[in-house]
Write a structure and sequence with these properties.
Elements (H helix, E strand, L loop, with lengths): L3 E6 L24 H17 L3 E8 L33 E3 H13 L4 E5 L4 E5 L5 E5 L4 H9 L3 E5 L20 H14 L2 E8 L2 E7 L4 H6 L6 E6 L5 H6 L7 E6 L5 E6 L4 H6 L6 E6 L9 E4 L17 H9 L7 E9 L4 E5 L4 E5 L19 E9 L4 E5 L22
Antiparallel strand pairs: 1-6, 1-7, 2-3, 2-4, 4-5, 5-6, 8-9, 8-10, 10-14, 11-12, 11-13, 15-16, 15-18, 16-17, 18-19
Helix pairs in contact: 1-2, 1-3
Length: about 425
């Protein structure tokens, strides 16, 4: 992060108590006038002093089901006419000129619109917190900007780091990218389910839904907002009557609606709004209900879009599903790696299932042993070692071999390794 970080406020440090809490008479809301303009002028002054002419939007979000802002939310969350691509133009990684950046800072100061971090490749940061606390970081001292800020009647204070710096939910979690393997798996999923749904979250609390078929995957892929969070779900839509019957007695849910023209929209409601929403579903072709609580109604698997060069630069994380955990485990295995597992089942069709640390691998009968045997149980009592042989990224499968762990005369004859042997 930039070495020079300043907290800039309208609150005089002389009116803070021993814990740093402001005790003066300044109000925490924006005046929509000269003080607000002073904040924006200060941001522009720091950007000019640092040689920054554009900013990158990071971790954008719009208002959710519950609004906690100091002012009522404005239409469009303060993004109206700022992005040529429409609402989806407000996405992680979007580059905006300083003038547009200032118009994004304005609703953040008012606490009535969209929110994001504004940064420039680690050299410059603009973070807005609650109660009109502004933090600006720079790789340069920006002495002229500091003087200008004081002249505007604001109070810049040097701090060690911005309290609004990004921190991941789980620093140890490896986020799956929506890379070539992801799209291969998605194609396989569509083939199995015929139709699946892709939820595209381009900003927190802002999403688009897409119905995927074999013929539409590439078209939808080309229209996704950069760095979006993606969630793959089986067909969750049903007729209106079944969806209404599936509503819980209470709780927060997302109602997904498909109109007769195929357009899919969603809205988040609780039990106090069920009656009003139900009355609006009469013209829907199909409807689905998704719980908004963590751990419930999880998608099949998730991912985040990398940039066009294949690098995953988005910092946000999706909520991991069992499918995501399987992917994370599989990527730690290598062909030929020796692992220990416990036999959990021997199926009647000749496949032995082995738990190798929370993931179930398969051992086919020819891979159990080099020697003849009467029944798989005679070769597969647990625990045993097996060697990772191959994996299928599209199906999240791992096949293993127990026989390859045992030396055999064939392993001592390298001259046969590249020949086809005919009995």
């Amino acid at each position: 992060m930039p070495p020079f970080v300043h907290r800039i406020t309208k609150y005089d440090p002389a009116h803070r108590d021993e814990r740093g809490h402001y005790t003066g008479a300044e109000d925490t809301v924006s005046d929509h006038g000269p003080v607000e303009e002073a904040y924006l002028t200060a941001v522009a002054a720091f950007a000019e002093a640092a040689g920054i002419d554009q900013l990158e939007i990071r971790e954008p979000q719009i208002g959710g089901f519950v609004h906690f802002g100091l002012e009522p939310p404005v239409e469009g969350y303060g993004r109206a006419d700022l992005f040529q691509a429409g609402p989806a133009g407000f996405h992680d990684g979007a580059l905006v000129p300083i003038a547009v950046g200032l118009e994004l800072v304005r609703p953040m100061l008012r606490d009535n619109g969209a929110w994001c971090r504004l940064e420039a490749e680690g050299a410059f940061t603009v973070h807005v917190g609650r109660d009109q606390y502004l933090c600006i970081g720079s790789d340069l001292p920006c002495e002229t900007a500091l003087a200008r800020t004081r002249a505007l009647g604001l109070f810049p204070e040097r701090i060690s780091a911005s309290p609004y710096d990004f921190t991941p939910d789980d620093a140890a979690y490896v986020q799956r990218p929506a890379d070539a393997d992801f799209w291969t798996r998605l194609s396989w999923t569509v083939s199995c389910h015929r139709e699946v749904f892709l939820e595209e979250v381009f900003a927190a609390n802002a999403s688009r839904w897409h119905r995927l078929t074999r013929d539409s995957i590439e078209t939808v892929r080309s229209q996704l907002a950069p760095r979006s969070q993606l969630a793959v779900r089986p067909d969750l839509l049903t007729d209106v009557g079944e969806a209404v019957a599936a509503l819980p007695d209470e709780g927060l849910v997302e109602i997904v609606r498909e109109d007769e023209d195929g357009q899919i929209t969603s809205t988040v409601v609780d039990e106090t709004q069920f009656e009003a929403v139900i009355s609006q579903l009469a013209g829907a072709r199909s409807v689905g209900v998704v719980s908004m609580y963590s751990g419930e109604d999880l998608p099949l698997y998730t991912a985040v879009l990398p940039d066009s060069d294949g690098v995953l630069r988005a910092r946000w994380q999706t909520e991991p599903t069992p499918g995501d955990r399987d992917w994370a485990f599989l990527r730690t295995l290598r062909r030929g790696q020796l692992v220990t597992g416990t036999v959990t089942n021997i199926a009647g069709f000749g496949v032995t299932f082995v738990d190798i640390g929370g993931f179930t691998a398969m051992i086919n009968i020819p891979e159990l042993s080099w020697r003849p045997f009467d029944h798989p149980w005679s070769r597969g009592r647990s625990p045993r070692s097996c060697r990772s042989v191959s994996s299928s990224g599209s199906r999240s499968e791992r096949t293993a071999s127990k026989g390859s762990c045992t030396p055999t005369s064939w392993m001592n004859r390298p001259e046969t390794s590249s020949r086809s042997v005919t009995p």
